[in-house]
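Record type: monomer structure entry
Structure origin: computed from sequence
Chain ID: A
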Amino acid sequence: RAGNPRVLAQVQLVFGRLEARAGHWDRALRHFALVRRHIEAAPSLFLEACVALDESSTRFLLGDFTNALKCATDGADAAHRSGWLKGRAVAAANSAYFAVRLGRVADAELHLTLAEAEPFTSPSLQIALLETRSQLAVLKGDLDGAEALLAHDRSLSKRVFSWYSLSLAESEIRLQLRKAKWTAALASAGRALALAAEHGMYAFVPSLQLRRAIALHAVGRAVPRRELALGDTDVSLATASTFWLARGAVAGAEGGRP
């Protein structure tokens, strides 16, 4: 069994997920590439769908939204052909969210409709769909509508923790910062960081710390240097941009000291 390509693919898939969870996205992508190599030798539509969806999430975290969307739609195709109902729903939900981040309103609405029509559902999936609807509202300029959706989403996330719970928290903090609700953003970031530490979801930590640093600066509080440390995880371009925004604000408050 140790030489069975499908078994080897499943092992590499687990390793890839663990690396992605730790924020080591380049390593995760290398594992996913090995999964694809193994299923070429022993085709499996289910594993093809799994690796496409895992890679889509990893590429999203890296800020590569275009390839994240491509992986998600590839995963949807494989899930449909394999009859994997959960995979179909997750792929449609991910595709909708990535389309929003790319500013593609019509595509996002189409994928949301497909996801909501799927027979599979779960609290995590409901959280993901509501968060996507809130981000779509932001894209359309309806910040109050987005805030109302996130409030409903938050009540769902209290019942179940998942990757989507921290994604939701990050969206809420971005919206609070955008609306200059500094104290609320500070509190939300603190709660989210505690959840990330509790569940070992370290990929979210750099972004959350940087957003907390921006909120601390906005309320006139000192920003500890550790808040501006990116740590040993890989970071997306979006997180790198937030880093320089936060560092610039703090340096300005300190009179330009490095």
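Annotation 1: Residues 166 and 234 are 17 Å apart (CA to CA).
Annotation 2: The radius of gyration is 19 Å.
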